[in-house]
Amino acid sequence: MIQPVKEKIIMGIDPGTNVMGYGLLRVVGTKAEMIAMGVIDLRKIGDTYLKLKHIHTRVLGIIDSYLPDELAIEAPFFGKNVQSMLKLGRAQGVAMAAALIRDIPITEYAPLKIKMAITGNGQASKEQVAGMLQRLLHIAPEEMPRFMDATDALAAAYCHFLQMGRPSVDKEYRGWKDFIAKNPGKVH
User: Fold this and answer.
1) Which end of the chain has the least Cβ crowding within 10 Å, N or C?
2) Stretch 171-176: mean pLDDT, rounded?
């Protein structure tokens, strides 16, 4: 059972190096409603490092606009292409750093866990996740985004909402020291 909360804003992020999704939920009691969702479009930025700078600036801007209490972020999917994983990990890390700078606790969720929480099927398609969110959050068809990265980010936030008051989240960080303590050997 979801524990009632007075009011909380949860920001979700679907990391990406070309398109990064974000979504925000307002939780009042045991009900969640969408505040906003969208994407940070990085496709026209050629330089990898300028993309990272843009991610940092935009994520901080979104945080400063909506003042989320918590961040739920999708963990990178472990694929075969090491270079893609490295780029995605950097993008995720920059978004996480923006949240940590504002002292926002971060919880990381595996894609399978997010899909399972939203649809009941860990192998659900992006379209199925978006459709279920549209029904759960009563999102009008014209409000649905063109890029499913936005609905994926909203799904991370909604997954976090469903996990509130429950143990067994994937990874949770309460600040830089906590991040370092939970990731020995990854931080030098």
Assistant:
1) C
2) 62
